[in-house]
Amino acid sequence: MSWVAIGQLTALLAVFYIPGYMVLRGLRLSRLRAVVMAPAVSGSLVAVGTVLCRITGIRWGPTVLLAVSLLAALLTAGLHLLIQPRQLPTAEPGPSWPMKFLLASSLLAAAAFNAWTMLDAMDNVDRVNQAWDPSFHLNALRWIKENGQASPWDINPVYSQGTGFFYPSGWHALVALAPGDVVTSANLATLIVACIVWPASLTYLAVALFPRRSMTWLLTPIVAAGVIAFPIIQQSRSAQWPNAFAVALVPVVLALGVELAAGRHQQRVSSTADGLPMHPDGRNHSVKTLALLLAAAGAAWIHPSAIFALLALGCVYVLRHIVLLGRAKWSQDQRQGYLWFAFWALSTGGAVWLVSVSPIVAGMADNTGVNAPFRDAVERLFFDLPRSPDDERIQLSDYNFWIGPLVILGTFCALRRTRSWPAAVGLGITVVLYLAALHHARPLSWITGLWYHDAVRIAAVSAVFACVFAAYALDQIFAVLLRYVPIRGRTVTAAAIVAATVCTMVASGAFRYDTRLLAAAPHYDVETDEFGRSILSGEQDFIESLADVLPADATVIGDPFNGSTFIYALTGRHVVYAQYGFADRTADAKFLRSRFRDIHRDPEVCAALERTGAEYVYLGGAERARQFNPYLQWPGFYDVDVSQGFELLASAEHAALYKITACG
After folding, report:
1. Residue 189 DSSP SS3
2. pLDDT of residue 285
3. According to a count of CB atoms within 10 Å of the terminal CB, is the N or C end of the chain lower?
4. How many other C-beta atoms can be found within 10 angstroms of the C-beta atom of residue 375?
5. Which residues of 605-636 are buried (b: 16+ CB within 10 A; e: fewer)?
6. The model's pTM
């Protein structure tokens, strides 16, 4: 990694963590909680900043984020002074220094393993991911840098072609703040999410669910490092970067919610000598409520799927809270109890109705998705397979034989605990949704449609509780073994058992490095492939060199599946097709998709080019991405006669750039 990339990484860490940390410390939240929760709260600050920029016309940039963060930190510090109790009870002691060291070591090991896999898959951090979604995300990052606006109504479509509509832009707004090229920034952001945000969030969730099981805390990041469903599949292969960032923040919100619920329960059953409520961290739980709202809002701003994930995973916690409060109100006044339950029944029914009639959700539910037989679907989820078990590329070494049994054992153990049994039910709900998304009949289409019927997205949500429960199962197994060890030797024995278990899993291939690499690498690969490539070997360097050939105001047209869509991200020169597909942004773009090659005999081609402003064409070789999909063809750019009417400006082995002279 170059020094420039290290500088970009440092800048990204700063914008991900410093704004949220400032606000949470203003609320006097503990340092560890503030660090872990910071990226989620930074999302809320981005929401405020980008909307203000849209209203005022100010350009979005680091200065705006800093100003919003400072103002928010001052406001939260003032709020803390207003809502804190008159006398703060003594806080429960945090982890000991030896435990902090062990936790840091566990998190560092998980981060190193994920980074190792992902960096090997990328080969270079400046290499383009050629999956479907990056063709939009990378150009959106470039557009934010050029346009200076990053609200959800400003980035889609890129260049503000046609009527803009809401698209979650929190991830884009944060990543666009880093200096340097957008490809490197995007790849480094995926590393931050996979190696820092995700393991730390899961560890906090483990602490919240099992506050007395320090072994579970230590094992959770290690277990998560062996799972492919998240972050490898969703971040590297599917490259659903904003969605993945939101999923990585979900454990933080759940953890704080679980702690808050436990604090309220403790308030009901115990009190201090002077009658003030006692709270687990020694703070008024109004502070935690505000922090919870900020974190949840930030995760939702990054990607609204976080709301659905939180509802699926945490709905039983919410329901239990509603029932307990309703019962308390009922015991005081039956009329208040009736009103309480009626309010929530109407609210729930109204929310379900809005979802069922929403045109946005209907559009998401129109996604055809992928079908799989029930047995294959269960096998894929149970063994954490990177692809369908009937795929000819699946080998025995791809199976994660320990994760499924451990998750099931941990779930049954969690059902016995007051704090964690709602989480076990939440995991079961996500498993049902996963199986329903793959079922050909779409039995829960109005719900699974919220994830585009995409089992990959739902599997990532399932991993939130699954990783923690697998670690808890290992903890329970170790506890049983330690019963037969004298008390004096238990510490050393526990350390030896953990070390032996981790070494056995790694050495036996349970972490499946080769499988993980093969799952992560395909869209970074630049060698020829039977399914096609958008960018082949050396082509990215060629595209970047076009910045010296094309004028700053140039617009380039070409088949987006043949590399042209990445010209904007890599050079800043506009393109007609700014992402894979979506040729119907304008009538001219749709027309040229199929008729550009008729430029010598159809004058309407030149008229359409003039209206789009395209004066240059990028023509790739015979291989193109998704070349066998009949719905993603761009025949207007196949076999174009360039012997006349075109001036060659630059060429490489797999592509060439021409100036269009046929139109005079």
Report:
1. helix
2. 74
3. C
4. 10
5. bbebbeebebbbbbbbbebbbbbeeeebbbeb
6. 0.92
